[in-house]
Amino acid sequence: MAQTKSPQANRHRILYIALGIIGLIILIGSTVAVAQTGVSLQTLKNSISQLAAHLGGSDLLVQVEHSQLPADGKSQSKIWVTPINTSSPLTANIIRGDGRVELLEHKDNNIQFIYTAGSNPGKSVIVFTSGILRQTTTIELIQSEVPPAPTITSPPDKSQINNSKPEIIGAGAQNTKIIITDNGKHNTITKTDEHGHFQTHLDKPLYNGQHTLAAIAINDLGIESATSNLVTITIKTDPAGIDRANIRIIPARVVAGESFAIFVPASLNAAKVTVEMAGQTYELFDFNKTSVFVATLPAPTEPGIYVGDVIVADVSGNISRFDNTISITVIS
C-alpha cells in the first residue's frame, strides 16, 4: 500500500522545487548579467543566498525614529532592528553619507542603534548585516535654519491675574510648534497658525505667587529657537472655600463602628477636599462634577461627640483649612 506524505513534507518539497527553479533562472541569466553590467558573480551568489534566506523565513526588520534630521552634527535618531530566524551577529555601517551609528542596546531580539547626524546635507545610507542577511535604511540630513524666537504679547509683563490658567497670546514663525514654559519648566504645547499667531490657555495651573513665562519655537526637524521675551506675572486667585451652612452628615447620630455619609459643598475652584477626624484623614469626591464632595466614612469605635476639620485645595494646590467644621455624635 502506498504511503501518503504529510502536508508539511509536501510543503517542504514545493519550497525546494521553487528554490531550484529560481536558482536555475538566476544561474542561466548570470552569465549575461556579468557580461553586460559588470556585476560580479559573488554579488549574484549573495543575492541568491539572501533570497533563499528570506524564503526560509529569515529577515531583518528595521524601524527608524526619524527619517530626516538637521545636518548639525549632533541630532540623533534611534533605529530598532529585529532579527528573525537568525542567530548571526548583527553589525551596522554607514555606506554612504555623513554621520555615525553606534549600538545602544541589545536585549533579546530587540537591538537598538543610535545614529548621530553629520554636518553635510544629503542622504546617509546605513546597512545592517547579520550573516548573509542585509537590510538598508536611509536618513536624510537637511540644512535647516534656526527658527526665529517667538514673542509673548499677552498677558502684559508684571501683571496680576486672578486665574490659575491664564490665556497666553503671541506670535512666531507660521505653522510652528510653540512650547510655553513656567519658571523654566514645560507647561503647554501649542502651534502658530498660518499667520504666525498663537493663543492658548495654560495646560497646568499656576499656584498663587510670581511666575516667569517664556516661549520657544521648534521646527519640524526639532531645532529650537532662542527664548522669547520673559513675562513675569503674579497669580492671585480667590482661595477655595466651602458652604458651611449646607454641610450634611447622614445620619446625624451614628452607631459606633458603623458608617455615615458626609456632603461638603465647595467653591467651583475646589479640586480636592479632605476631612481630618479622630486622628484619621479621609478624601471626599466630587462624583457628579457639581462641587459637592461626598464620601462614606467609618464612625469612631467609641461613643462620644467628635469634631473634624475640612481641608480644601484648589487646582493650583493652594490650601484652605476650616477647623472644627463638622461634628458627629457616636452612640453605642
UniProtKB/TrEMBL annotation:
The lineage of its organism: Bacteria, Bacteria division Kazan-3B-28. It comes from the Bacteria. The keyword Transmembrane helix applies. This is Bacterial Ig-like domain-containing protein. The keyword Transmembrane applies. InterPro entries: Ig-like_fold. Keywords: Membrane, Transmembrane, Transmembrane helix. The chain crosses the membrane at residues 14-35. Gene3D superfamilies: Immunoglobulins (2.60.40.10).
